[in-house]
From TrEMBL:
GO terms for molecular function: ent-copalyl diphosphate synthase activity; terpene synthase activity. One of its GO terms (biological process) is terpenoid biosynthetic process. It comes from Medicago truncatula (Barrel medic). SUPFAM superfamilies: Terpenoid cyclases/Protein prenyltransferases, Terpenoid synthases. Keywords: Isomerase. Its EC number is 5.5.1.13. The keyword Transmembrane does not apply. Its cofactor is Mg(2+). This is Putative ent-copalyl diphosphate synthase.
Length: 176
């Protein structure tokens, strides 16, 4: 499998098909769906499919991204932030509609990141392991999508990436 889009290209062999071929087969002008028989395109799968197809040299129109304009994304961000702040203030973060593991702890740990936009720089220590609660994994019985092997590889990759960024940053500082 060409797993460049996972950035986990060192020592894993998982599947026998190229993701670009699969993505190309189900791509529409509106994007791609989470399941082959679905008519509902979502931003996550469309963005990933767009990136994979472009990465492998396919001509893909950026018009598919029009469905997910900045205004929609900003509205979704504002809605979810408001919803979580309201639930946190009422101490109701263990709501049945919030599917996550230890949301109160994550809210406390990452609250500065949610406000300042630096949350992308933080490592999420428990994200993606076999205990991660994920709607697709839970409802559609997909246990191999998030497991401890992927989690460990992701942590190693994250640390490697951070080390590379640090080295690049040191080089840039020396140039100044």
């Amino acid at each position: 499998m060409d797993c460049q889009y996972f950035r986990l290209c060192y020592s894993i062999e998982i599947m026998e098909y190229a993701p670009a071929d699969v993505s190309k087969g189900y791509w529409t002008k509106k994007g791609i769906c989470w399941a082959r028989n679905s008519e509902v395109q979502d931003i996550n799968d469309t963005a990933m499919g767009f990136r994979i197809l472009r990465l492998h040299g396919h001509q893909v129109s950026p018009d598919s991204q029009v469905l997910f304009q900045e205004k929609i994304l900003e509205d979704a961000k504002n809605f979810s932030a408001k919803y979580l702040k309201k639930k946190r203030a009422a101490n109701e973060l263990l709501d049945k509609w919030i599917i996550t593991n230890d949301l109160p702890g994550k809210q406390t740990l990452y609250s500065c990141g949610l406000c300042s936009g630096c949350h992308g720089m933080l490592a999420y220590p428990d994200y993606g392991g076999e205990n991660d609660v994920w709607i697709g994994k839970t409802l559609y019985r997909m246990p191999y999508m998030t497991n401890d092997v992927y989690l460990e590889l992701a942590k190693l990759d994250y640390n490697n990436c951070q080390a590379m960024h640090y080295d690049e940053w040191k080089e840039e500082i020396q140039r100044w």
